[in-house]
Structures are given as C-alpha cells and as structure tokens.
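Apologies for my clumsy wording, but could you write out the amino acids of a protein and the tokens describing how it folds?
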Amino acid sequence: MSAITYAIDDLQTMVGRVLKHTRRNRSTLIMTILLPLVVLLLFNYGFGGALDTGGVAYIDYVVPGIILMGAGYSAGATAVAVSTDMSEGIIDRFRTMGPGAPPGKQCGPR
C-alpha cells in the first residue's frame, strides 16, 4: 500500500471514531449545532431592534461573533478530547501501531 492509501485509511478510521463519540455524546452535537443557531436568533430578533447600527443591518455584526463563538467552542472541545485521549492511553496505542501515515492519525481528536 502507498502512503496516500495509508493516510486515507487512517483518516477514515479517525473520522469514524469521532462520529461514534459524537453520537454517544448528544450534548456535543447540541452545543455545536443548536446553540449558535439559538444565540443568532436571540441576538438578531431579540436585541436587534434595541441597538442603532447606523443604517447597517444588525445581522452583519452578529454573524462574525457567532462564527467566532463556534470556533472557540470547537477549539475547547478539541482540547478536552485531546486531554482525554492522553489520559486514557489512546495516544500510546497510536505510537505503537505499525506502518501508516502519522498525519492521518491526528485528523480526528477523539
């Protein structure tokens, strides 16, 4: 097998692992998808009329903040997942694996 084949195989394994963890942990799914949507709707329709934006649509101010909020949550969730993996020993198991593409093993944080 070539290095690209190993990388694709490792990537599929890690993505499958992350999807299994996400299905088992519903709060992660809710926080990733539902919370930014609720906050966007709350800020846009709840507080949108209370602020004067000088003729610019309020949604133009809210959306970048929601995107940054999602990125921040994703970074935090990834940090927790890596910490959990380090304490549970999965990283040690990856180090003892045979040949393969090391970058493929790092594509999935859990």
In short: The first helix runs from residue 3 to 24. The mean pLDDT is 79. Residues 15 and 62 are 31 Å apart (CA to CA).
